[in-house]
Amino acid sequence: MYSFPMIQKLQARADHPPRPAGWTGIRETLSEAVNDLPPRTLLWQTFLLIALLLTLALVAWSQIFRHFEDPVRARDLAQMATSVVNLTRTALINADVERRTELLIDLAALEGIRIYPAEPSDELLPLPDSRAMRLLTEEIRRQLGAHTRFASRWKTLDGFWISFRLHPEDKEDFWVMLPSERLQQTEAIEWLTWGGGALLVALLGAYLIVSRISVPLRNLARSARVVGSGRTPPHLPETGPQEIAAVAKAFNQMAGDLARTDADRALILAGVSHDLRTPLARLRLGVEMSGAPETEVAAMVADVEEMDRIIGQFLDFGRGEPQEPMEALDLAGLVRDLVEPYRLRGIDIRTDLPGKLVLPARSLSLRRGLANLIDNAIRYAGENHPIDIKVNSAEGEATIEVADRGPGIPESEIERMRHPFTRLENARSNTKGAGLGLAIVERIIRSHNGRLDLGRRLGGGLLAILHLPLEKRRLGTRMRGPEQDDATA
Q1: So where does this one cross the membrane (predicted)?
Q2: Domains of the chain: which residue ranges?
């Protein structure tokens, strides 16, 4: 017997199977990690990955360049600094004592070279501790002697300071300052500038390359959502790379086949329904004139009416997407006109309507959808229970609530009940029907760029809410489900 913790561990392993070993497992892990990071679109994920790779490559090449360039440049700069020091020492040694001050002034004014005697109380700031600077100072010390010192500031003067002696046997040091401009790595800066420009050009090219893939994929996803909503998508351009063109061609062929299949289905349903309704009418007339007991006649007439209603639902479902144009419609007035015949039949329908609420809609198809909701409420809740209908508007949309006191629908079954030919036998086993009522309502409300919400009513029963936009929206811009939103992100 397994203990409860052991069962939990087995279930966890079943829910999260181990990854394949080796490179395949590493690749899957990296792929999932990248997919979980924002942004979620293929365009920006691929672009950022390429940008990261190019940046890392540029950084790596710059480090390689510096690694091999620093020793060469250190030798050149050390040779230049050593030459300046040697020439300055020679000039001071050979100059007359009276003219040394004039010489020092000329060196500072013309060459930017300053010379000062070193003192024990000098305030010095050491050079930065970097690889390039260490190579430079080691090379200069090798040529001038081990006694050579360096500083980046002498008292309050910034520069590249080097100590030297007039004679190797002297104990007195002098400081010579070289201008910082002579030590700047102009070539490296130019190289980095050109490298940055090349990086920008490469990133622009990467963006253009990735966009050639992401744009057709976005168009394909948009057309797939149109197909999923029961409409015929526009023809996709079969251009671009061979693989993208082949996918677009296959999708166009599939969409065409689906459109022809829907047209054939609508034609078959219309023909069959027409052929069935004529004998049903004769059957009802024969039943009413048969002279059978009234209760039997009423039961048979009810069965005939139920068959006629099911045929009507088949016709509604077979019509597909409504072809009626959108027009300004008073939603409150439509509900008033729709419920009046039901009230004349003695059905208790309570309404909570505004004075007037105008929105773009298809009058006939929206009336058909509301009638299906009311018929479902009557069928499942019975004619003895009141039906509540409320129309309201808020946050840019209008809502129509239809509430009954029937058995309702469990939350786990709500999504399944939106599909055609689906019935909830356990909750409503005493009812008849083809299971098309909610599917028809779903299709009609989706053609209005709205949505249908189903839930349990407080106190028992079903609460159906139709959400309709108050302003006309582009077809297909509002879809239901987070997975559809991710496909376009």
Answers
A1: 42-65, 191-210
A2: 1-34, 80-186, 229-321, 326-488
